[in-house]
Specification:
CATH topology: putative 2-phosphosulfolactate phosphatase
Strand content: 15-25%
Oligomer: single chain
Number of strands: 10
CATH superfamily: ComB-like
CATH class: Alpha Beta
Number of helices: 8
Shape: globular
CATH architecture: Alpha-Beta Complex
Radius of gyration: 16 Å
Length: about 230
């Protein structure tokens, strides 16, 4: 099994084999939460305009997403997991767009298969990849808006690679470092309405969800589908 770590939008475009699109803060941590809360389906999309068009076609669908971290005006929710804890999504269809994570999905056109990546379901991701046993694994770190690297996604990719290779990784030592690099904005008192500190704590939990989310494309639209693993 060849494992490569790639970065940002260009990395997503270059990804091959079984591809893990990683967005720890916060897109794919949120999608795990929404799935666990019983969402019927999640459609990750690249453009805000596409999200609104889907909403116009399906008025009962719920829009989640952000640009520059903040909830898109006209959307029901932003991209904060802890601000969505009380969202009633059971049995509902969700459209989700972000500046980083969902951009990776829609740009990974060369991938054989796409799953989402986060710390909150890391163990399930590793077990899923082991079962699939692909020749090539691409771990794509989406970073900030898909344009600049961020430590949390790099840490997640390195952690996944180490586990897949049967090695060790000092994850317990790395997570506190994210408070100053990658997750510093969650501790800014002037930005708590966009980046609540509780999001940092939520997104850095390890393997609390026993499933992966596989992005499957049909008729031009991706759907993140739950696959129970553990």
């Amino acid at each position: 099994m060849e494992i490569q770590i790639l970065d940002l939008i260009e990395g997503a475009k270059a990804a091959r084999g079984l591809t893990v699109i990683i967005d720890v803060f916060r897109a794919f941590s949120l999608e795990c939460l929404l799935t666990a809360k019983g969402a019927a389906a999640i459609h990750p999309v690249g453009k805000v305009e596409e999200a609104f068009a889907l909403k116009a076609e399906h008025p009962d669908w719920i829009l989640f997403g952000e640009r520059h971290g903040a909830r898109v005006e006209g959307f029901a929710y932003g991209n904060s997991p802890t601000q969505c804890m009380d969202a009633d999504v059971a049995g509902r269809v969700i459209v989700h767009t972000t500046g980083a994570g969902t951009q990776g999905i829609v740009n990974a056109s060369g991938a054989d298969e796409i799953i989402t990546g986060s710390l909150v379901n890391a163990a399930a991701i590793v077990e899923y990849i082991r079962r699939q046993n692909p020749e090539t694994v691409s771990l794509v770190c989406m970073g900030r808006a898909g344009k600049a690297p961020s430590l949390e996604d790099t840490v997640c990719a390195e952690y996944l690679r180490a586990l897949l290779e049967g090695g060790e990784y000092p994850i317990a030592e790395k997570i506190p470092l994210l408070r100053e690099d990658g997750g510093k904005h969650f501790f800014d008192p002037d930005r708590q309405h966009i980046y609540p500190q509780a999001d940092f704590d939520f997104c850095t939990q390890l393997s609390i969800y026993p499933f992966v989310l596989r992005a499957e494309k049909q008729d031009g639209l991706y759907t993140s589908r739950k696959i129970n693993i553990l």
